[in-house]
């Protein structure tokens, strides 16, 4: 090819090659066995030119190459590079990779659990660690040249996302930022913000998957392509993709195959034919079982596979089903290698703990090449599964969606059992972004020619909707940034109030809010044009129709108010009747999910606010705990009693009654039905409506009849235009309020937080008090509560185990709340201290309400959860793992994770405790030592 070039062209090409070889990128490219992709080269060149970069690319495309080039540049320039990740597991994995490439002497690790060679020029850390360094003005920041933020799209995370923005805003200007993100649909918007706060930033977006992805649906014995053969399976092209007509026919056949009851008139033979047709269609369409899916994938050469099941119990059940089905994916050689590696990795775990952890059942699955992976597993077990999967010794993993976040564990195929998952509040369809994230695991670069995403057929599945999910690339990055108490004192301490306010105005949250105002302003202008047209439509020749319409609205509003007052009076009467209830009263619950006969076990708390999360749920008045005739123990609310309730009968509740025991509930419910099942409750008589005797309503009706427009022949036409005018005017005012509300929102929240902290003497103008300096060392959701407990000496004199129990209430959150039975807590001083913590929280909660700090908006202190106090107290008291897990009814992985979070907060308490109080700091350190044993100590990943 060079022979065809002229001498001048050959000289120019040689000059280009020489210039390329003189760059830092040339030797870096030689370190890899494969050539870099265009987007990687573009990003690396921008970095070498001194620009910051935002790289948005699909999972598995090799974004981290750009982060590793930042490490390469830092070492070349004699500067430092911090490589941040969202989770400790990813930090450990990245540390291992970089130490292998650059040598253990040049790479360090800093997480909540580990500190290895922290003064090295390259340090891998969790993002929170870097945030804490910035606030404390750590000496480690000296000489920092580059910061890599891996998985930067985590800033959308509701609970932890603010940390990413804090770091981006507060990093020194001299630091070059490398942001690595999954494919997001608003990368340019995020890049514009980075350009604003960090200076010159290059945005590099790559939509191309390194390995093409084929989409399938498995129904019955067949695996169907989701899209037609001649169209773009990988989703990389821009052409329109058609849904496979075979799948469309399958869905139509299932929908039409049902038996219609109206066909009874058509005769027995026709009905039999219908049933036969339905039976045949069912034989062709069913959801394959889990062992059947793995066998099918194995036969097609599509293993290793990750099957996503949105339930921990479902993952464990899937492994057991495969074992019972006799599935074996490993030969004898592979089995021996698995056993050898597992025994080596778990050698530190005592034999008695192995039984408790279900080690032998877990090992049997691994030897057959099958495993589960979820947050409830012991971290050591999860690490082993990851290692075996990467080595090809585990070929089928059943995992929750947490596996899709960050961990480098690609597969040839990904299976989705369902397209619905529990989001913490309800079962909801997975989003296109979540679908992309999950299926992004399919296809191993350098190993597989193509990846495969398989969705299992479910009844009423819509292939077109699935195609839309698979073909949409909508994954917008939304800021979750909110000021916190700790953030406020740290900012004021460093910059003063005015400068802090300006800094918060530069957040991505405010950047997005300001941009959204533009669209709302346009809508307001359109509405004002519409209002002029509606005003013409309601013009009446007899008089002022706007005045007449206002009278009609006033009448309607008055009638509504009276109806609400009547409802409020009925609720008040119902609340009074509930306060009179006693344990043993038999009542009839008039409405709601648990309507019917019920026995009062506990009348509930006295009237007042008992909300668990203010702003989300309010319960006024008593909340009786009852046993229903259907054997359910439930805490009822005032909404279940729209009318007063009277006891129908009295019953004795046995002292031995245990609400957690199914047998106890069954026996008492049977006695309840026998005692009162025959009683018919009296119907509540409705009182005369207040509107009938209301003078204001009579006056308004008289004015309406006397108004000139009342006699207009076109009155109702005018009224319709007037109603449209009123609705549009109301909507326009709401939009105007939204514009006002979105301008300076973050700064206004900061002002409210500062006002509350000033009230509590944490701040005095720009001065941070001694109490404020203590709060600056406490990070977490309940930072202010922890500070107030230290201030009031709540934890003075507690033993290490008792202090650990109290610290757990600051971090633990139950996955599902249990209203029926309060959590078990240690007795004595620990119980008193926990009670005092809840009282202090109540005081802070009321104060937040006064200062309009609303937890529903992500700001403020949630109620401390005492659900882990007993378990952590027992563990710190040197109880065995078997005993602790059995009493806690908690998976080992959850126990380890929460214990590590308790250890983390105890470390903060030890650092923040007042100097004059030696016992709290000393016992916090002792509590850390007491907790850091057994499974908690030998799990390297939190």
How would you sum up this structure, described in words?
There is one protein chain. The chain is an alpha/beta fold and 942 residues long. The chain contains 34 helices and 24 strands. The two termini are 56 Å apart. Helix 19 (485-505) packs antiparallel against helix 25 (745-759) and helix 20 (508-537) runs antiparallel to helix 24 (715-742). Helices cover 49% and strands 11% of the residues.
Uncertain spans, ≥5 residues at pLDDT below 50?
230-239, 258-267, 607-619
Helix content class = 40-55%
What is the structural class? alpha/beta
Overall mean pLDDT stands at 83
**Percentage of residues in DSSP E strands:** 5-15%
Number of helices: 34
Shape, please?
Answer: globular
Instruction: Compute the number of strand runs.
Output: 24
Radius of gyration: 33 Å
Strand order of the largest sheet: 4-3-5-2-6-7-1-8
Distance between the termini: 56 Å
Tell me the major beta sheet. Answer: 8 strands, mixed
Features of the shown structure:
942 residues, alpha/beta, 8-stranded mixed β-sheet
Summarize the structure.
With 942 residues, the protein is of the alpha/beta class.
Question: What's the structural blueprint in terms of helices and strands?
Answer:
Elements: H1 7-21, H2 25-30, H3 38-48, E1 52-56, H4 64-77, E2 80-85, H5 88-102, E3 107-110, E4 115-116, E5 122-126, H6 127-136, E6 144-149, H7 161-170, E7 176-181, H8 187-198, E8 201-205, E9 213-219, E10 222-225, H9 245-256, H10 268-284, H11 290-299, E11 305-308, H12 312-324, H13 332-345, H14 351-356, H15 359-367, E12 370-373, H16 379-390, E13 396-399, E14 413-416, E15 420-422, E16 427-429, H17 432-439, E17 451-456, H18 463-471, H19 485-505, H20 508-537, H21 545-579, E18 585-589, E19 596-602, E20 625-628, E21 633-635, E22 649-650, H22 662-676, H23 695-706, H24 715-742, H25 745-759, E23 763-764, E24 767-768, H26 770-775, H27 783-792, H28 800-811, H29 828-850, H30 869-876, H31 881-888, H32 892-912, H33 918-931, H34 934-938
Parallel strand pairs: 1-7, 1-8, 2-5, 2-6, 3-5, 6-7, 9-17, 11-13, 11-14, 12-13, 14-17
Antiparallel strand pairs: 3-4, 9-10, 15-16, 18-19, 18-22, 19-20, 20-21, 23-24
Helix pairs in contact: 3-4, 6-7, 19-25, 20-24, 21-23, 28-29, 28-30, 28-32, 28-33, 30-31, 32-33
């Amino acid at each position: 090819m060079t022979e065809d070039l002229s001498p001048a062209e050959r000289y120019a090409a040689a000059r280009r090659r020489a210039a390329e070889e003189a760059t830092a990128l040339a030797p870096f490219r030689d370190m890899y066995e494969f050539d870099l992709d265009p987007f990687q080269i573009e990003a690396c060149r921008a970095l070498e030119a001194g620009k910051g970069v935002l790289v948005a690319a699909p999972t598995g495309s090799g974004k981290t190459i750009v982060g590793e080039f930042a490490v390469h540049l830092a070492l070349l320039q004699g500067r430092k590079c911090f490589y941040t990740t969202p989770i400790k597991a990813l930090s450990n994995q990245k540390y291992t990779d970089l130490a292998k490439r650059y040598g253990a002497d040049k790479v360090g690790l800093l997480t909540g659990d580990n500190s290895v060679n922290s003064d090295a020029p390259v340090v891998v850390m969790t993002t929170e660690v870097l945030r804490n360094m910035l606030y404390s003005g750590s000496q480690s920041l000296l000489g920092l040249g580059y910061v890599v933020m891996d998985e930067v799209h985590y800033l959308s995370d509701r609970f932890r996302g603010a940390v990413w923005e804090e770091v981006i805003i507060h990093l020194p200007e001299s630091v070059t930022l490398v942001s690595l993100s999954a494919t997001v649909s608003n990368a340019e918007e995020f890049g514009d913000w980075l350009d604003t706060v960090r200076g010159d930033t290059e945005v590099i977006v790559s939509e191309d998957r390194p390995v093409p992805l084929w989409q399938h649906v498995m129904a019955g014995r067949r695996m169907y392509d989701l899209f037609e053969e001649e169209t773009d399976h990988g989703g990389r092209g821009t052409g329109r993709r058609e849904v496979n007509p075979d799948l469309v026919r399958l869905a139509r056949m299932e929908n039409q195959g049902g038996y219609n009851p109206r066909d009874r008139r058509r005769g027995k033979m026709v009905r039999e034919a219908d049933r036969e047709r339905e039976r045949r269609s069912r034989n062709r369409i069913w959801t394959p079982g889990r062992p059947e899916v793995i066998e099918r994938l194995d036969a097609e050469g599509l293993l290793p596979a990750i099957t996503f099941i949105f339930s921990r119990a479902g993952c464990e059940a899937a492994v057991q089903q495969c074992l019972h089905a006799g599935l074996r994916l490993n030969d004898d050689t592979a089995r021996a290698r698995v056993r050898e590696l597992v025994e080596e990795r778990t050698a530190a775990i005592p034999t008695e703990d192995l039984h408790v952890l279900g080690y032998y059942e877990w090992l049997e699955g691994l030897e057959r090449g099958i495993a589960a992976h979820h947050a409830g597993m012991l971290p050591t077990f999860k690490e082993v599964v990851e290692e075996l999967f990467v080595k090809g010794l585990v070929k089928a993993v059943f995992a929750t969606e947490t596996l899709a976040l960050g961990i480098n564990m690609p597969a040839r195929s990904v299976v989705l059992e369902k397209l619905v998952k529990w989001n913490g509040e309800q079962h909801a369809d997975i989003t296109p972004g979540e679908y992309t994230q999950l299926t992004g695991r399919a296809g191993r670069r350098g190993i597989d020619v193509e990846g495969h995403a398989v969705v299992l057929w479910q009844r009423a599945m819509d292939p077109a909707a699935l195609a839309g999910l698979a073909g949409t690339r909508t994954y917008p990055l939304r800021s979750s940034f909110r000021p916190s108490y700790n953030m406020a004192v740290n900012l004021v301490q460093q910059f003063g109030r005015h400068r802090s306010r300006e800094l918060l105005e530069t957040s991505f949250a405010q950047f997005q809010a300001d941009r959204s105002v533009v669209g709302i302003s346009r809508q307001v202008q359109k509405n004002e044009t519409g209002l002029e047209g509606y005003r013409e439509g309601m013009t009446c020749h007899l008089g002022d129709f706007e005045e007449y319409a206002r009278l009609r609205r006033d009448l309607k509003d008055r009638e509504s108010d009276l109806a609400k007052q009547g409802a409020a009076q009925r609720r008040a009467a119902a609340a009074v009747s509930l306060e009179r209830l006693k344990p043993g009263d038999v009542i009839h619950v008039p409405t709601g999910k648990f309507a019917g006969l019920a026995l009062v076990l506990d009348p509930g708390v006295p009237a007042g606010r008992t909300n668990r999360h203010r702003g989300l749920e309010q319960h006024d008045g008593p909340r009786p705990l009852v046993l229903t005739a259907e054997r359910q123990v439930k805490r009822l609310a005032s909404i279940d009693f729209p009318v007063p309730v009277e006891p129908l009968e009295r019953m004795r509740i046995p002292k031995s009654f245990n609400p957690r025991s199914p047998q106890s509930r069954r026996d008492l419910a049977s006695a309840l039905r026998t005692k009162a099942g025959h009683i018919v409750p009296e119907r509540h008589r409705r009182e005369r409506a207040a509107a009938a005797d209301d003078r204001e309503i009579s006056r308004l009706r008289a004015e309406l009849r006397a108004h000139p427009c009342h006699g207009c022949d076109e009155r109702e036409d005018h009224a319709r235009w007037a109603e449209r005018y009123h609705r549009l005017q109301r909507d326009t005012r709401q939009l105007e309020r939204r514009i006002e509300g979105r301008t300076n929102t973050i700064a206004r929240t900061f002002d409210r937080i500062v006002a509350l902290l000033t009230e509590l003497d944490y701040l005095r103008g720009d001065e941070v008090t001694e109490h404020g300096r203590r709060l600056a060392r406490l990070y977490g959701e309940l930072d202010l509560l922890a500070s107030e407990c230290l201030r009031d000496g709540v934890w003075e004199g507690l033993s290490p185990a008792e202090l650990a129990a109290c610290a757990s209430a600051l971090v633990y959150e139950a996955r599902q709340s249990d209203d029926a039975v309060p959590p078990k807590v240690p007795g004595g001083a620990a119980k008193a201290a926990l009670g005092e913590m809840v009282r202090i929280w109540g005081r802070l909660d009321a104060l937040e309400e006064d200062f309009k700090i609303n937890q529903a908006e992500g700001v403020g202190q949630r109620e401390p959860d005492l659900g882990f106090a007993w378990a952590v107290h027992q563990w710190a008291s040197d109880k065995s793992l078997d005993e602790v897990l059995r009493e806690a009814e908690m998976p080992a992985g959850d126990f380890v994770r929460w214990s590590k979070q308790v250890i983390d907060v105890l470390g903060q308490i030890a650092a923040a405790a007042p100097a004059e109080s030696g016992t709290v700091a000393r016992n916090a350190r002792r509590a850390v030592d007491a907790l850091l044993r057994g499974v908690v100590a030998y799990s390297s990943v939190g």
